[in-house]
Amino acid sequence: MCPFPLATAAVTAPRTPLRHLGRGLAAAMSTARPLKSVDYEVFGRVQGVCFRMYTEDEARKIGVVGWVKNTSKGTVTGQVQGPEEKVNSMKSWLSKVGSPSSRIDRTNFSNEKTISKLEYSNFSIRY
Questions:
Q1: Is 23 a known active-site residue?
Q2: Is the dihedral of CA 51, 56, 60, 66 positive or negative?
């Protein structure tokens, strides 16, 4: 488990477990505005600093789905899907904020496209 706690507000904020949201989140997002999908890779000091945990938390706060994982070359990679404005918020977070102990040198985005439906039901950490 990550030795760095999430910010107090994130820990104390009430949450609905994803199992209770079920298809509701995906269905609500699918019927709204056009959906976007984008792949990303974050470079810098992004491993060993709880980057994946904070990314998962931020994605759930923003309301996007997808995944995040560490790579063997010391970067973090993943995919984000959701309404365009929410995907753009997540892109900004991945480029400028990250976890408190991280240092983001650059973030590459690729394969950005419009999709007709979400491919994931939540945001998860992959191993």
A1: no
A2: positive
At 33, the pLDDT band (50, 70, 90 cuts) reads: confident
Q: At what angle do helices 51-62 and 84-96 cross, to 10 degrees?
A: 150
Catalytic residue among 70, 88, 103, 111: 70
CB 40 within 8 Å of CB 109: yes
**pLDDT by residue (tens digit) across 46-85?**
999 999 999 999 999 999 999 999 999 999 999 999 999 9
Question: Has 60 been annotated as catalytic?
Answer: no
Q: Which residues pair with 67 in a beta bridge?
A: 79, 124
Q: Which one-letter amino acid corresponds to residue 78?
A: G
